[in-house]
Specification:
With 230 residues, this protein is mainly β. 4% of the residues lie in helices and 39% in strands. The chain has one helix at 196-205; strands spanning 22-23, 28-32, 42-46, 48-50, 58-62, 73-78, 84-90, 98-101, 111-119, 123-132, 149-153, 166-174, 180-190, 219-227. It is flat and about 50 Å long.
Length: 230
């Protein structure tokens, strides 16, 4: 897969009856805090889900760069005690990136959950994500200088594959409530120059835990993306 398809968290894994599944690192998964509008130029990648609040968390799967017949996919969520919370089957999955609502159930044990996905052709992979009832219950929420949701520019299909080479760095100023108040693009090289607007939108989507100390000690947080053609 092209470097532009690399996502925050990789993995998938489950078992279709009758298939011998094998770990495939070319299959990726990414977790989104909420479902973005169809025309959005950025998205909210997350390392945390919560079961309260109706956030419309999403699990996105990408197996191939082009649409192919992969036999559908099965998506299973296991809680921190390896108990199955939900199971989805999507016979119409055809390999390219697609996002599904994260079915978190009601009674799963909080902690590190496992996402297992297997394609109908036998390929599989797995990924982990933190799940708590409330965001305030999460140890990640106590990492005051680190976002639990970080914006990422969406892929721009108008840019030819061979031009996806470059680097992009943007910096975010964060207020005491955890809201990003200002975004600067500090480095935009190669394809990064064409992603400036998307990086700024991504910056404002990021979410940080609150920290009253920022009133006197401001937080400026940077994100870097590097791109290389396959």
């Amino acid at each position: 897969m092209k470097a532009r398809h690399v996502v925050l968290a990789a993995g998938l894994m489950a078992v279709f009856s009758g298939n011998v599944a094998a770990e495939d690192t070319d299959i990726y998964i990414e977790f989104l805090w909420s479902k973005p509008p169809a025309d959005s130029i950025a998205r909210q990648q997350t390392r945390q889900f919560v079961t309260e609040g109706g956030h419309d968390h999403q699990i996105c799967v990408a197996a191939n760069a082009k649409t192919t017949e992969v036999g559908g996919l099965q998506l299973e969520l296991l809680d921190a005690q390896d108990k199955r919370v939900s199971l989805q089957q999507h016979a119409d999955y055809r390999g390219t990136k697609r996002c599904y609502p994260a079915d978190l159930g009601k009674d799963g044990a909080p902690g590190e959950w496992t996402v297992r996905v297997v394609l109908g052709d036998g390929r599989e992979h797995s990924a982990q994500i933190r799940v708590d009832h409330r965001i305030e219950d999460s140890p990640q929420y106590r990492e005051l200088s680190t976002p639990y949701v970080v914006g990422r520019p969406n892929y721009d299909a108008s840019i030819p594959a061979e031009q996806w080479v470059g680097r992009l760095v943007w910096a975010m100023d964060v207020d005491p409530q955890g809201k990003v108040t200002h975004v600067d693009v500090e480095v935009a090289e190669g394809v990064g120059e064409r992603l400036r607007e998307r990086a700024i939108a991504a910056g404002y989507m990021s979410l940080f835990p609150p920290d009253p100390a920022r009133a006197t000690t401001p937080l400026r947080w940077r994100r870097t993306l590097s791109f290389a053609a396959e």
